[in-house]
Every structure is written in structure tokens, then in C-alpha cells.
Write a structure and sequence with these properties.
inorganic pyrophosphatase (n-terminal core), alpha/beta, 20% strand, 351 residues, six-stranded parallel β-sheet
């Protein structure tokens, strides 16, 4: 038995039972692990049925796996865009898979938490220092590979059982653990135990559509360009996908994951110009002593998070817009691409 989860579940129960009014669970950026917000929703509905609960999300379902999960499990009908919600109507807020009150993936968080702190936070990353009280539940645990693991541990202690009736939720949580632990490779005993608990009533056929998901033709076009644009110096690699739409923007991260596996490479930056509005960078570092978070913050205003394996993953965005005005037109896009390429290489390679 995980004594920490037992103690944490008791405090969470006390906090939820005292809440009243409306709770918004915030999903800062759709991905398999962040979809564990639906696990917290199930906990809240069990412990406090009178409390009104909604899920609001930021960003887009750009990653093909995310799109597959949302479409097949009909999650778009179970949550709303943050921008479509009247945030003043909520009495409480919760964060799962994030503990940053100004997360750049969801700029609206800055306004939400300007004068209010979240009532519930469940995360496995570094984040803001939020004080826990009798009325506020904060669980940031770096000893697991996925936020979904923490949610499952809480559910287990609170008496949840997975069966055919809640199979969709089991699929969501199992995928969250699998994805953030790289298919249970970069994992801990707690992740494996949590995965086994939710996957008891799942077969390989239940998960296969979400693991062997389709990739758009554009992915292979962008992969070809990145291979052509590779520049390597010592153990650092930089490449780009050129111009890309926000609908396909997560392909940048997929390609970064591929390039960091290249032998002899310790640092990877894959970038692209998204919707002619911003440069999006995905970075990966395999050297345990390389300060990727500080590097991205200094050079691009971004940040990173460590994984269980010690590999760092992060990114940044640099805007090309000023209000409604974009610096990139049809006539200037080639120049903008060349400028972005030179500037990024200058920051990474020093030349």
C-alpha cells in the first residue's frame, strides 16, 4: 500500500467535501497524461455529488494521438474551451498535470490566478510554490512518471473499481501512464502498479487504436524536411519543419522525440513557424547534467521538465505578431524563415 497516497486521499476527501458552488478543472494543454483530469472529475462527483464540475481546456488537439483519443472517446463533448467559459462564475479551480499559475500553454491562467489560487493541484512537475492548507489540496510528487499515476493512486485509496461501465476512464488513465513513461520504459514501480490497476479489465484491442494511431501525410513531408535541414555541431542538433499549421504543430514534438534517439546527440531543437505567427521550438536533452530549463529560459524564454529517465523535454515560442499585425506575409515568408533559422542556430551553436 502506498502510505503517501492514503494520507493524500484523506486530505483530498476533506477538501472536496467542504467545497460548494462550481468547480472548474483546468486542462492546460491536451495530451494523454493531462486527460487524467477526467479521473479527478470522477473523484469529485463521487465525494461531493452536489458540487457542479466542469472541465475547461486550452490549446488544440494537434497531436494525432490526442485527436484519436478525443474523437473515439468523444471527449470534446465532455469539456469546453477556456475561452468559451465565464471564469468569474466559478468558485474553485483545479489543476492536473500542471502546477504553474502562469503556464505559457494557457495564458488565461494568469488572469484566473491573479487573485485566486487553485483549490486542488495534482502534478509531477516542478511548478509554482502553492501553500497547502486545510481547504487547499496540493500534491506535487516527482517520484512518478505521470500525473495519471497520482490520480489512479488517489482513486484506488478512495475505493474506485474499474470495470466495463467505466472502461473509457480506464483507457484514458492507462494511456496517460503509458505515454508519459514512454510505454512503461522510463517508469517506476508506482507507475507500473497504477497501470496494472486500471488495465485489469482492458485488452490490447482496447488500447491499440490509441497506440497505433494514424499519422497525417504532412508528418512525412515535415520529417523529410527536417532530415534535409539538419545541422549538427559536436553533440547538438538543430533542424526545422519550415512553415506548419497549428493543427499539425505537435508534429514538431514528435520529430524532436525521434531525433534525440540519434546516436551521439545530447541536445535536439526542432522548430517551425506556426500559422505565420510564432516560432515553436521543441527541445530534448539526453545528457543528465545539461541544464535544459535554464538554456531554454535564457535563449528563448521557454522551459523544460525532467522525465523519470533523466531526459529533459521542453520548448518555447517566439511571437512574430504584434496585435493583429503579422510580420510574415507571402512576400516576406522566405526571409522570415531564413532569419529564424540563423537566429536559432546562433543561440545553439554560437554562430
Amino acid at each position: 500500500m502506498n502510505t503517501t497516497a492514503k494520507e493524500r486521499s484523506e486530505h483530498l476527501k476533506q477538501v472536496i467535501e467542504k467545497m460548494s458552488g462550481r468547480l472548474l478543472i483546468v486542462l492546460t494543454q491536451p495530451d494523454p497524461d493531462a486527460f487524467s483530469v477526467f479521473g479527478l472529475e470522477a473523484i469529485v462527483k463521487k465525494l461531493n455529488p452536489e458540487l457542479s464540475v466542469e472541465i475547461g481546456y486550452a490549446g488544440k488537439f494537434g497531436h494525432p494521438q490526442n485527436r484519436t483519443i478525443v474523437k473515439r472517446l468523444k471527449l470534446d463533448a465532455k469539456m469546453k474551451k477556456l475561452e468559451d467559459l465565464d471564469l468569474t462564475k466559478f468558485d474553485h479551480f483545479a489543476l492536473v498535470d500542471s502546477s504553474s499559475l502562469s503556464d505559457n500553454r494557457a495564458p488565461v491562467l494568469t488572469s484566473i490566478f491573479a487573485n485566486k489560487i487553485p483549490t486542488i493541484v495534482i502534478d509531477h512537475h516542478e511548478g509554482d510554490n502553492i501553500e497547502e492548507t486545510d481547504d487547499v489540496f496540493i500534491w506535487r510528487d516527482f517520484g512518478v512518471g505521470a500525473a495519471s499515476t497520482l490520480v489512479v493512486e488517489l482513486m484506488r485509496e478512495l475505493g474506485f473499481v474499474f470495470n466495463d461501465e467505466n472502461k473509457d476512464l480506464a483507457i484514458i488513465l492507462a494511456l496517460g501512464i503509458r505515454t508519459d513513461t514512454k510505454d512503461l520504459v522510463n517508469t517506476t514501480e508506482r507507475d507500473v502498479s497504477a497501470y496494472g490497476f486500471v488495465a485489469t479489465h482492458l485488452s490490447s484491442n482496447d488500447l491499440m487504436p490509441y497506440i497505433s494511431y494514424d499519422l497525417a501525410p504532412s508528418f512525412y513531408e515535415h520529417r523529410l524536411r527536417t532530415l534535409q535541414e539538419v545541422r549538427i555541431e559536436d553533440t547538438r542538433l538543430v533542424t526545422n519543419v519550415g512553415f506548419i499549421s497549428s493543427d499539425d504543430g505537435d508534429e514538431i514534438a514528435i520529430l524532436a522525440d525521434e531525433f534525440i534517439r540519434r546516436r551521439g546527440i545530447d541536445l535536439v531543437l526542432v522548430w517551425g513557424i506556426v500559422d505565420r505567427k510564432e516560432v515553436r521550438i521543441s527541445a530534448r536533452a539526453s545528457a543528465p547534467d545539461f541544464p535544459l530549463n535554464e538554456f531554454l529560459k535564457k535563449h528563448f524564454g521557454g522551459g523544460s521538465k525532467p522525465t523519470v529517465s533523466g531526459r529533459d523535454e521542453g520548448g518555447a515560442t517566439v511571437s512574430f505578431t504584434s496585435g493583429e499585425f503579422s510580420w510574415i506575409s507571402e512576400q516576406t515568408k522566405d526571409l522570415a524563415l531564413e532569419l529564424a533559422s540563423k537566429r536559432i542556430q546562433e543561440e545553439v551553436f554560437g554562430s
